[in-house]
Amino acid sequence: MSKIISLSTNFKTEKMKKIFYLIAAMLGFLASSCDKELTIFPEDSLSVPTFFKTEEDFTQAINGTYVPLRGINNASKPYLAEMHSDNTYYARNTAFGATDNQEDIADHSIPSDGGITANSHVNNVYVSYYEVIARANQILATIDEADIDAAVKANVKGQALFLRAYSYFDLAQFFGSVPLHLEPVVDREGAALPLASEDELYGQIIEDAKAAITLLPLKSQQQPGRATSGAAQTLLGNVYVVRKQWGEAETVLQQVVDSEEYMLMPNYEDAFSGNSDNKNNMESVFEIQYREGADGLNGSFLYNFLPRPLTAEEVGLVTGTSNPQPLNGEGNNIPTPDIIEAYEDGDLRKDASIMYITASESFWEDGIYPIIKKYVEPHALNGNHGMNWPVYRYSEVLLLLAESLEEQSKAGAADYLKEVRDRAGLGDYSGDLGEAIFNERRVELAFENKRWFDLVRTGRAINVITAYGNRIKANPIDYYYPVGAEPRGNAFTNITERYALPASESSLNPNF
User: Fold this and answer.
1) How far apart are alpha carbons 448 and 105 in whole angstroms?
2) Which segments of the chain have a pLDDT < 50?
3) What's the pLDDT at 96?
4) CATH number of 48-90+100-215+495-511, picked from 1.25.40.890, 3.40.50.1370, 1.10.8.60, 3.30.2090.10
């Protein structure tokens, strides 16, 4: 395993750049139409037949497969998964004007025609996940024949299967039906697959996740930041919960608990990555890796989640940078009054998740806004930080397992719920156990891209968002509109459980 080198140091070589270009060139849906009938590959050129040979080659390729996840979670996915729910909204800046792509997502007013939309964030998430899938497919198509160490081969293959399963899982939850690519795309015709049904997609996701579990090492035996057997088990358990296969979910999630590879961090706020420390901690099951600096591995999502306008001094008070810059435009993912009220009295997670800052030049009331505190960490460079993004934490394993048991009327659900509540400083739940678990997920996993998926899978999305939209339209000031400003006329007029497919892809695929 020593040859599987760090995720954060492998992307600077020219060879890595060339393999990215090679894979991108093979994607019919990302490349322009051209004649691709070359069949001769000189031994000194970089091509699929000459590249995928050594452990180093496959290590570089799997490193590249993780890369699009950084872009997905840095901006667009939090808009689609959190700001499209009742957890966060945008902070209207009437001096700036409209930012339609974000506002349309928050307001459930995304223009669509025949199941197609031009929204840029929808496009970004869709295309980026297919980049992950394309890179995983290239590895999976070549690795079985490679003459490399068996343990390295299993590890790389397991990671590729996990990343493909994870990508299709999010695509299925966001869009419902999408093309199912399981082989490398080498021409335009190969890119134009029909839309697979949700049953077909989930069948493949389950198959990939199961295979990944058998190939991947435990967290304690894996290099930090990479997919593990526990991550694949958690993904599979999540899939089973979405599919309401409660018994299967219980079995696989119980295996994660019984592995003793994970524990809750004693303090909730310590479950989240620092800028350069506390990454992949004992509660982390899988998280997206970022690193501050000039090598392109950094994040900037904290800045996307701030109200505007902010002076340089006000930005500095949040970020701790030595060169803070003023922010203008419109702030996104601002915690709503709804999520703030969702915390019970005495819940320690509230102050660990939400803080307040002053935007002195704002037109909204006194300019004191709530912001997401989970990702506020001091860092050196303005607009450039290294906090990791949590995808799965052990607390979610406990809550998914509790839900699976409760749905089967089995004992133990309340015990797992209690573990999560105890850390939050809360006593026993009250009322219906199923509702208590659902509500617990909201506050435990707030701002981690879970809320919209939970609303959809439980059949609550339409009713919850309709009521939420009515509250915004009736009381816009409560939702960060300056006095005299009102929601647009099309706000909350297109509430659906699935996103329309991106228009940019429809020109390449007649099945859209």
Assistant:
1) 17
2) 1-46
3) 83
4) 1.25.40.890
